[in-house]
Design brief:
The chain is 37% helix and 18% strand. It has 406 residues and is of the alpha+beta class. The strands form 3 sheets. It has a 5-stranded mixed β-sheet. Strands 9, 10, 11, 12 and 13 form a 5-stranded antiparallel β-sheet that branches. β10 and β11 form a beta hairpin. The longest helix has 22 residues, at 257-278. It is globular, with a radius of gyration of 22 Å. The structure holds magnesium ion (MG). Magnesium ion is lined by residues 8-10, 12, 103.
Length: 406
């Protein structure tokens, strides 16, 4: 039975820019937090992806791969505005059950919509409604399946402008074309665990018993995956709902725009380390800066769930571009919110950053653990290394509201 319809916009940030600016259409573009060779692409158009430029590619490298690459500074408010317009467009056709990120949403199929033909026609209507109400550049991949997990998986099987239906009778063979690492809920840790249990392919995963997957996952999540890849409707359970973050009162020498920026990045790098220690990903980043005189600046962004320091740094840099340059910053607070387990099935959106970057993150963590804090850090934090010492316990979970109003 088809129960779920998942909508995933293709190359979302880049498509929004191409929609907003017709001169960018059909061209390789990369969205960047700032125009600099040392930054990374936070998104790329399909024209750029075909040339090897993708999320996380360093711009110096991207220019080698694609010399005519056009860099576009991120316009976050524009992405949020389009996000709401896309939800409205989908709502014209079918109710949106939940919004899972800035470019992903899931709808329940009920009644006659559970029949294949009807579900497919709804998918076409959704695509058409988005094009008509938001714009011709806004393509999406739609997945239709017996549960949200498989519907999300189906959106990954055809891009851009995909439409894939997975029915019970297609299972499990339809999944065999995928790599283990491509499946939601299989991050590098779980990938390694599967390997040590002799499971190397999706086919082997599909033939493992419920008990075997329970053993690999070390708990009920393994059984939930077993059921999900069989098309069973396993309710979503929030296993974690918390925040990793930190506040810091700036020392007088750092009470400047640059000082505050550096401390924010330093706090971010500590928070990201902690997030990885916990095996979590975050889906929201918030920054709050308090100025002498009591003024306050706050910024909150929804992001594709990640624990990757490069992605988080890119997001943070974009957010900080909006930090007022006037006034004297006094205290900064950052938080990584909407966290969930990286290997849990309750994390349908884990953004697979690939083994190279996961090993970069792991290397940062292990080198700093072995040789001491700040042995290895991202350059964004260079001017604030002595601030916010590592000894401050990260188990402290600040409430940004009360923290600011103290
Ligand atoms: Mg997308």
């Amino acid at each position: 039975m088809l129960r779920s319809l998942y909508v995933d916009l293709n190359s979302y940030f880049a498509s929004v820019e191409q929609q907003a600016n017709p001169a960018l259409r059909g061209k390789p573009i990369a969205i960047v937090p700032m125009i600099a060779d040392t930054t990374v692409a936070i998104a790329a158009s399909y024209e750029a992806k075909r040339r090897g430029v993708t999320t996380g590619t360093m711009i110096s490298e991207a220019k080698k791969l694609c010399p005519d690459l056009i860099l576009v500074t991120a316009h976050h408010t524009r992405y949020v505005d389009y996000h709401h317009r896309i939800i409205d467009a989908v709502e014209q056709v079918i109710h949106v059950k939940s919004v899972n990120s800035i470019d992903e949403m899931v709808c329940d199929l009920t009644g006659s919509a559970r029949h294949r033909d009807k579900a497919i026609s709804i998918a076409h209507d959704v695509k058409q409604s988005i094009k008509e109400r938001v714009g011709s550049e806004m393509l999406c991949s739609v997945g239709i399946a017996p549960n949200d997990y498989l519907a999300k998986t189906a959106t990954d099987m055809q891009k851009p402008d995909g439409l894939v239906v997975i029915e019970e009778e297609d299972l499990p063979q339809v999944l065999y074309s995928m790599e283990l690492r491509d499946l939601c809920g299989i991050g590098s840790r779980m990938y390694q665990r599967l390997y040590t249990h002799g499971i190397y392919t999706v086919e082997m995963l599909c033939s493992a018993t419920k008990q075997q997957l329970h053993t690999v996952w070390g708990g009920i999540e393994g059984e939930r995956l077993w059921a999900r890849i069989r098309g069973q409707d396993v309710p979503h359970v929030e296993t974690h709902k918390s925040t990793v973050g930190q506040s810091h009162v700036l020392s007088p020498s750092l009470r400047s725009h640059d000082g505050a920026t550096g401390v924010v990045h330093r706090l971010l790098q500590k928070a990201a380390t902690r997030l990885r220690q916990y095996g979590l990903v975050a889906a929201e980043v918030t920054i709050s800066v308090r100025f002498l005189g009591g003024e306050r600046w706050k910024c909150a962004w929804d992001i594709t769930p990640t624990q990757d320091i490069v992605q988080l740094t890119a997001v943070m840099s974009s957010m900080l571009a909006e930090l007022p340059t006037s006034g004297t910053p006094f205290k900064v607070t950052i938080a990584l919110n909407k966290v969930s387990p990286v290997d849990g099935m309750s994390q349908p959106l884990f953004n697979n950053i690939g083994p190279a970057r996961e090993s970069l993150n792991a290397s940062i963590d292990s080198i700093n653990k072995k040789y001491g804090k700040n042995t290895l850090y991202l350059g964004t934090a260079w001017n604030a290394l002595s601030s916010a010492p590592m000894r401050i316990a990260f188990t402290h979970i600040p409430d940004i509201e009360t923290d600011d109003d103290e």
